[in-house]
């Protein structure tokens, strides 16, 4: 952070690097933004939040010159500035790094950084000067690759650094990052955070867009919230809380956010897992799951929660253990066996492991029923169409028609599409791994409603989640894993309260658990 700004100051004393005032944008007479304001100071990470459709992307496209506002004013360092196209935005020191990276993989880092703005010496390109300049920027970012590296050989996180370096080379003062960690591992994400903090400390203003609350808590100095195309308000770092954010983003309190009412009297045992293990990381685990119960499976990243789910579902081979469903021992050697028995599984990575991205929404919803709905060896498309249309209505999946590809839907609609597919088989047990990862708060609320409705109908649900508020808000009972072992159970009805403190006691190895 620059010396002029105190990190948590409520009212910075310096001139804002960016002021957007009265920004209004309409498309075909429909208002996408109405009188929106945004103020950004140098040397701060400013999170821009709001659910899908709130207007974040439209506002940032106006800032980046992709759109021109119908009304309003933009000031850079207090000076009114006309931004009419991307070139004028870059000239004003504004660069936007999109979620989908914009690099030429067959060129070097230097060539990518100077593309369209090459340095020359006489009639020839001044390659040494460009390479030297590029290397200096890379060194300032702490990059582990050099300016001569072919970009296509770099990891996604490193390609992202190339885009950041290109912006810095252009003397960017305002850097917009749109869902920058979507394709990054945990280690790559932490390295990106280090880069962001370094940029902030050098006085660069960063507008950070993300649906991941933990990232906002880790990085943001201030937060501004949009809802339905309108500016709702801003919070300083010390004012940020889940309760206030939810209230601002969806217009209702945290108490009303989680749809589930905790059950005190569980139904019959429908799933019993006995000493299941992979012979390595996962130690023998045993538990029961009741009809109509939401059983939360908590623990730190790497604790083994996903691995247990995959062993039950037959996605990974188990070395030992048994799975019983309604008193009958199952022989599960593959996901097909689990599906035939009435067990569904929504994986944490919906794009790589869940959806058929290039297929239509209709086929994604109906694919698990193709076999049972087939007539004489032919697909009964009438049945598939009926199921898909009903699912779209029941789950409020927003799409123009059933032929829209899964890849073209938002994250929240993709997740609801995946839920709809599994519910089409009417599962007895449904396992959900990170069911709201990467979706906005509005979609989260809808997914919680779907989960609660399923439990009310008697479906037994095993829910894996890294979000403690989600585990606490949605679970009837919680199991906690640590280092591949089930180490604790929390259940309000037996005197072990489901709280963040108690979950973390078990997850980190502390022994004291409050009643």
**CATH superfamily grouping of the largest domain:** P-loop containing nucleotide triphosphate hydrolases
Head-to-tail CA distance between termini: 43 Å
Named at the architecture level, the CATH assignment of the largest domain is 3-Layer(aba) Sandwich
Give the quaternary arrangement of the chains: single chain
- Give the helix level as a range of percent: 25-40%
Strand order of the largest sheet: 6-9-10-3-11-12
| CATH class identity of the largest domain | Alpha Beta
Mean pLDDT reading: 85
Domain count, please report it.
Answer: 3
Question: Largest sheet, described in full?
Answer: 6 strands, mixed
Total DSSP helices: 19
Number of distinct beta strands: 22
Say what the CATH topology of the largest domain is. Answer: Rossmann fold
* Poorly predicted segments: 1-10
Radius of gyration: 25 Å
**Proportion in β-strands:** 15-25%
What class, by secondary structure content? alpha/beta
What gross morphology would you assign? Answer: globular
GO cellular component, one term: plasma membrane
Subcellular location: Cell membrane
InterPro entries: AAA+_ATPase, ABC_carbohydrate_import_ATPase, ABC_transporter-like_ATP-bd, ABC_transporter-like_CS, P-loop_NTPase
Pfam families: ABC_tran (PF00005)
Report on the architecture of this protein:
With 515 residues, the protein is of the alpha/beta class. The protein has 3 domains: 154 residues, Rossmann fold (3-Layer(aba) Sandwich); 70 residues, no CATH class; 169 residues, Rossmann fold. The protein has 19 helices and 22 strands. A hairpin with a 2-residue loop joins strand 16 and strand 17. The longest helix is centred in the middle third of the chain and has 16 residues. Keywords: ATP-binding, Cell membrane, Membrane, Nucleotide-binding, Repeat, Sugar transport, Translocase, Transport.
């Amino acid at each position: 952070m620059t010396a002029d700004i105190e990190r948590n100051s409520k009212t910075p004393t310096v001139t804002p690097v960016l002021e957007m005032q009265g920004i209004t944008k309409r498309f075909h007479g429909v208002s996408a933004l109405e009188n929106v304001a945004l103020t950004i100071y140098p040397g701060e990470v400013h999170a821009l939040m709001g659910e899908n459709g709130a207007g974040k992307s439209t506002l940032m496209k106006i800032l980046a010159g992709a759109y021109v506002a119908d009304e309003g004013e933009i000031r850079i360092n207090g000076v009114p500035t006309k931004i009419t196209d991307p070139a004028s935005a870059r000239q004003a020191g504004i660069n936007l790094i999109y979620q989908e990276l914009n690099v030429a993989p067959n060129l070097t880092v230097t060539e990518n950084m100077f593309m369209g703005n090459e340095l020359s010496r006489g009639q020839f390109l001044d390659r040494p000067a460009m390479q030297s300049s590029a290397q200096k920027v890379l060194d300032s970012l702490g990059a582990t690759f050099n300016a001569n590296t072919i970009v296509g050989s770099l990891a996604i996180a490193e390609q992202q650094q190339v885009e950041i370096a290109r912006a810095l080379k252009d003397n960017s003062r305002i850097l917009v990052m749109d869902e920058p960690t979507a394709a990054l591992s945990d280690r790559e994400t932490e390295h990106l955070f280090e880069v962001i903090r370094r940029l902030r400390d050098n006085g660069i203003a960063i507008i950070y867009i993300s649906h991941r609350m933990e990232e906002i808590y880790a990085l943001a100095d201030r937060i501004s919230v949009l809802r339905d195309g309108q500016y709702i308000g801003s919070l300083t770092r010390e004012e940020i809380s889940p309760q206030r954010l939810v209230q601002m983003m969806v217009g209702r309190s945290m108490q009303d956010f989680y749809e589930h009412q905790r059950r005190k009297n569980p139904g019959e045992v429908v799933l019993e897992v006995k000493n299941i293990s992979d012979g390595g990381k996962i130690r023998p685990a045993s538990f029961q799951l009741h009809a109509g119960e939401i059983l939360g499976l908590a623990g730190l990243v790497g604790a083994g929660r996903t691995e247990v789910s995959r062993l039950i579902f037959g996605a990974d081979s188990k070395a030992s253990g048994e799975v019983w469903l309604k008193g009958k021992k199952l022989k599960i050697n593959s996901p097909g066996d689990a599906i035939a028995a009435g067990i569904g599984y929504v994986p944490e990575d919906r794009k790589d492991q869940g959806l058929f991205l290039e297929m239509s929404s209709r086929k994604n919803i109906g694919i698990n029923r193709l076999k049972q709905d087939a007539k004489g060896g032919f697909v009964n498309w009438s049945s598939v169409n009926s199921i898909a249309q009903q699912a779209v209505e029941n789950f409020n999946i927003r799409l123009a028609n059933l032929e829209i590809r899964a890849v073209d839907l938002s994250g929240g609609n993709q997740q609801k599409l995946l839920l709809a597919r599994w519910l089409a088989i009417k599962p007895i047990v449904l396992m959900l791994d990170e069911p709201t990862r990467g979706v906005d708060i509005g979609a989260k609320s809808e997914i919680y409603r779907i989960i609660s409705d399923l439990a009310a109908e008697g479906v037994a649900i095993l829910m894996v989640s890294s979000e403690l508020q989600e585990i606490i808000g949605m679970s009837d009972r919680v199991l906690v894993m640590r280092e591949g072992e089930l180490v604790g159970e929390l259940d309000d009805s037996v005197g072990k309260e489901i709280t963040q403190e108690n979950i973390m006691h078990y997850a980190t190895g502390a022994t004291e658990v409050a009643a």
